[in-house]
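User: Fold this; tokens only.

Assistant: Input:
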Amino acid sequence: MAPGTGIKAPVPRTRTGCLTCRKRKVKCDETKPICGRCERLQRECVWSEDLQVISQGRPPVFSSATIITTRSDVPALQLSRPSGQNFVLELPTVDRAMIPYVHHFVSFCCRFMAYSNDNEGNPFQEALAPLAMSSPALIHSISALAASHLARNQPSHEITAANHYSIALRELQASLSDAKIAQSDATLGACLLLCVYEISHSDRSSYSSSWLEHLQGARDLILFRGGPRTSDYLTRFFSLLDVSGALFSGKGTLLQGNYWIDDGTDDEGSKALNWPYYDGSGVMTDHFHQLMTHMAKLSQLSSEALGEIGQENPDMIAKKGTEIYEAMLHWWSQCPPELRDQNKNWRRLPREKKLTVSETLEEEAFSSTKACLLGCVIYLHHILDPVGREPQKNEVTEAIIEILEIAEETPQGYGLEMGLYWALFMAGVAVFNDVVAEDLIRKKLRSDMTVSLYHADRALDLLEVLWKRQHQYGTKYDWRLVQSQMGIQVFILA
């Protein structure tokens, strides 16, 4: 009551809480999908469908989605696209409490699955998400991944993420007992999403290598389906995860061969995907896939160098390294000028006509591809001289400088950092007691985790230990051995 009046002070009212709290006229903390009060009192937490849109925390990045109801009273998601063409996903069999997570997956997670801000003709939106309506393993994998990402800002989602993850594992195991279901896109998709869940999980206290176990399961499923097909978006996504993971696992790629190289058709004559949409001419994807062949060879070389034969035959490792390096430089020299010769100040260059969203995103992808190449240069030289017995090569010094320049020029808040994490990590490995460079790398690797699906927590933890040792003892350390000593398994999407 207001002091001395005997009259209740006005209580602020909100129309944005859950219907359960509003009906009982109590304050709602607005945590979705289950608010704190309903969770504590074990009540059904009901939300009005027009309030189910989950905020992404930042200004929208080229996309928005709305929950609607179709004429047949079926809940649906309507996704707005840069082209103005809407995509509608009906959710006839989805539990009401899971709708916000499906929404977040379709409107946000899909856009950062493989490429940043990929929001037109995205196969995870258009092909995979609809399969979840008839696949328990996939719908729970989707919910687990979405809830895990939301938990970065709202920790209350963490328990929900863990619950969906547990159910997804059980349902996936059940799917494998039926040969037809095991060969489906839904089952392979669920396996890959659980891999991404482990890679992007926000719990820094967890350093398990479960992502690698899920990736091995996905490999087995691909082989069970008859082997990799270039035009299959799930196989293509697997290849990106496989090559990226191999650079850190020290065991080489799980599937051999350059099966991700696109020649326009696969073995069955079907046309390959034009993905992502902003790389319409395929300049970035075609040439990045070529770079992936060199990355796969580098991962195999790293594995050999750490093995007994490689330790006893350093000249053999050096010879193979030189061959890979020369092939990589030859590939780069053959790349189109718009990729190879891109000015790092391209965002500030005067233009007669402003770049479109699609053109801007393609230019950003070019910057990431160049940074990835520079990271590979550092990676190769680290394999050949992991503890700095020789003076640092000029090409390594130049690669560090250019990576940091690209990172400084890349705008934050749009999820573009995910394309630089690999290069930044390798720059962090190569610098030696340079606190200025370390601070910049630290800042960029700590970028807001809510604006992209992947993050670099584990990689930064590894660098911090590496830097601390190098500052303390004044000598270089092999990050691969430090990773092993820490008992962790880092993953960065290249």
